[in-house]
Amino acid sequence: MSLARVATFAFAGIEAVPVEVQVQLASGLPAFLMVGLADKAVGESRERVRAALTGLGLSLPPKRILVNLAPADLAKEGSHYDLPIALALLAAMDVLPREELAGFAALGELGLDGALLPVAGVLPAALGASQRNLGLICPAAQGAEAAWAGRGQVLAPADLPALLNHFRGVQVLAPPAPPHLAPEPWRGPCLSEVKGQETAKRALEIAAAGGHNLLLVGPPGAGKSMLAQRLPGLLPDLSPEEALELSLVHSVAGLLRDGRLLTRPPFRDPHHSASQAALIGGGNKGRPGEISLAHHGVLFLDEWPEFPRPALESLRQPMESGRAVIARANAHVTWPARFQLIAAMNPCRCGFLGEPGRECSRAPRCGEEYTDRLSGPLLDRMDLTVEVQPVPAAELSRAPAGEPTSAVAARVARARAAQRARYGEGGPRHNAAAEGAALEEKLVLDEMARQLLEQATERLGLSARGRTRMLRVARTIADLAGSAAVTRAHVAEALAYRGRRGMRRIG
User: Tens digits of per-residue pLDDT, 192-201?
Assistant: First the structure.
């Protein structure tokens, strides 16, 4: 009897869970058996491994081959088990040395010709291997990804023969170079292309500076989507820690390309037909949803009320906690989901509420019914609400170009730097993430601003959450102005973005 072991990983969220691939060759009727709670993709690896070894000129021994994926009670999913199964089988056949393989973890999909194909999860696997003082064997296309995260030796062969020649000493695989994390210039649409809409552009700048949620309300063609698409250009580059955390999510989702880590905040804009599982995550495999793919970035929901009601209500808890917990009967998976929500909607279903000659015959009732699709707790989580009105034709043709994205992004960067200095290392990354205690301790509020805040809280009936969110916006406005203290003018502007109805009630 011959037994060989190779380490690999399963994935629970962005966490790499150790898995040991054990291959035993024993006497008995020839068979190739696999145990260990493997899904269909893992079960099919038997034929891929058999074909790859045949391409090397090797045939399976006429013995009972048993592959065990330990621990046996952990579900194994994905095609990345092909390579560790093949390596353990070759070690059991005495083709590869067991001692050298013991220092590596492996993952990769095998082609029928022995080529190593890219798989999901190389980045968290590299981190997991480093924590266990192991090297990592992965496909050549993902060598740079593994080299960036791993501190041990990384082998990234293009195919199985190259890996065999390396262990035999016939050739040496050069270690892959980690990717260069230089900041990438913004290549998206420029804010200067937006003519007019000064109030909306101001709200967009505040949202970018403080990471605040923003709701844009206006008729069709007013420019809501155009404004939202220019928000990513105002956001600063991700820090190395943020880039790693976001890239881990995208790596497990199989969305990293050419080993390049993400250094810019993501912008996700799912269609309004998206299901709850598509937004939050889930399904049979507990995959990450749009809110996790938008981690440290922007989630744009156009036609907000058209999304399914359960999907929208499921956003409420992640918007507060910054994580999505997917509960299943056999497992609980947690994904990071600290995103900035930008939503756009028409005032009613036809979109022309309040425009004489264009609104439907059911106005204003149609507008109330349309808005009722959004619950009060969900609306209470929106920091800024802006009405976007169409720009007159004369202004469109005569208005000068506005500020470019680079100029506004520079102010946003200065405001973000002030916030990092205020909260310190390990604190909130921006004002929108500041909890009540941290916000109150660092908040300098003059007496007139405090009086206005108390009056607004009483007359508008603001909840504790609404009051805290309004204070965060006021603090961001003060940061943009370079003010150490929050003044009455900053509080008044923050109140204006809670909705025009509230401003009329204050007087």
Answer: 988 888 899 9
